[in-house]
Amino acid sequence: MLIDLHAHSTASDGTDSPTRLVAAARDAGLAVVALTDHDTTIGWAEAAAAVPPGLTLVPGLELSCRWTPPNGDRPTELHVLGYLVDRAHPGLAAALAALRDSRLGRAERMTERMAADGLPVSWERVAELAGSASVGRPHIARTLVEAGVVSSVDEAFATLLRTGSPYHEPKEDLDALAGVRLVTEAGGVAVFAHPLARRRGRVVGDDAVLAMVEAGLAGLEVDHPDHAPEDRAHLRRLAAELELLVTGSSDYHGSNKRVRVGAGGHTSPAAYEALLARATGSAPVVG
Ligand code: AMP
Ligand code: FE
Ligand code: FE
Ligand code: ZN
């Protein structure tokens, strides 16, 4: 029974529509897939309507957050997965709307700065490509590929879009503890996404995990494609010590990333059952 608890669709920065995503999940032999788009639940309805027989869909989301250490050091970006939340929870819905809105302004400013420097990109095209999705750097990256500025999304992230590039602007985000509390208050289950994905930038220490646990964190995403073996081992020990669920996933993004759905990491049936038992906000969709 293969379980993949983290995948993106065209509702954020994946390239498969929710319909294609659930079909691809079934084709990959998965029994369970979670749809976890960045800062949105807009893909849930389409995915739920398309779940093929033999597949179960776990509705979820991935919240853009930041951890601010109590000692006043600069904040670190991190992601919190929220499974089976009540998407009508007013606090959560308002937070998601604010995050998506700030993504729009930020992506527009980044694109306009490139255009002002003579790069053949336009906000109009980025916005068109993103449609109703939660817009992000991958949309800008695809526009740059289309315009022939770079040869791949990876190259765009390594150059013009990397943190520290003159064109890069950080996203607005939610305090990590507030994010965990919101997911939990909305009846969902909060899991720290790829806590040690070092190639994306700075990562947090165990102190952040401890604080998040006090706020209601239920699990750690341990088996993730961006995690080195020694980091997986560390996270597994930490999860055991703190009695946290251990999850695994592909973090599939369609053709924006190389990993296929159902590859790179899986969640055990026992952890999945424990996750379901904690959720009260919404229910999985059985195909
Ligand atoms: P943003 O949220 O707009 O800052 O963009 C970050 C998103 O880009 C993350 O959700 C990643 O999934 C994605 N991402 C990061 N690095 C890459 C890469 N090299 N190729 C494709 N997508 C990436
Ligand atoms: Fe992403
Ligand atoms: Fe993430
Ligand atoms: Zn993700």
Question: Helical region count?
Answer: 10
- Rounded mean pLDDT is 97
Order of helices and strands: EHEHEEHHHHEHEHEHEHE
Characterize the main sheet: 9 strands, mixed
User: How would you sum up the global shape?
Assistant: globular
Distance between the termini: 15 Å
Number of strands: 9
In total, the number of domains comes to 2
Task: Summarize the topology.
Elements: E1 2-7, H1 18-27, E2 30-38, H2 44-50, E3 56-67, E4 76-83, H3 90-116, H4 123-130, H5 137-146, H6 153-158, E5 174-175, H7 176-185, E6 189-193, H8 206-215, E7 219-223, H9 229-242, E8 245-248, H10 269-278, E9 285-286
Parallel strand pairs: 1-2, 2-3, 3-5, 6-7, 7-8
Antiparallel strand pairs: 3-4, 3-9, 4-6
Helix pairs in contact: 1-2, 4-5
The chain binds adenosine monophosphate, fe (iii) ion (2 copies) and zinc ion.
Summarize the structure.
By secondary structure, this protein is of the alpha/beta class.
Give an overview of the whole structure.
This protein has 287 residues and is an alpha/beta fold. The protein is built from 10 helices and 9 strands. Strands 1, 2, 3, 4, 5, 6, 7, 8 and 9 form a 9-stranded mixed sheet that branches. The two termini are 15 Å apart. Bound molecules: adenosine monophosphate (AMP), fe (iii) ion (2 copies) and zinc ion (ZN).
Distinctive features:
TIM Barrel, binds zinc ion, binds adenosine monophosphate, 18% strand, alpha/beta, 2 domains, DNA polymerase, domain 1
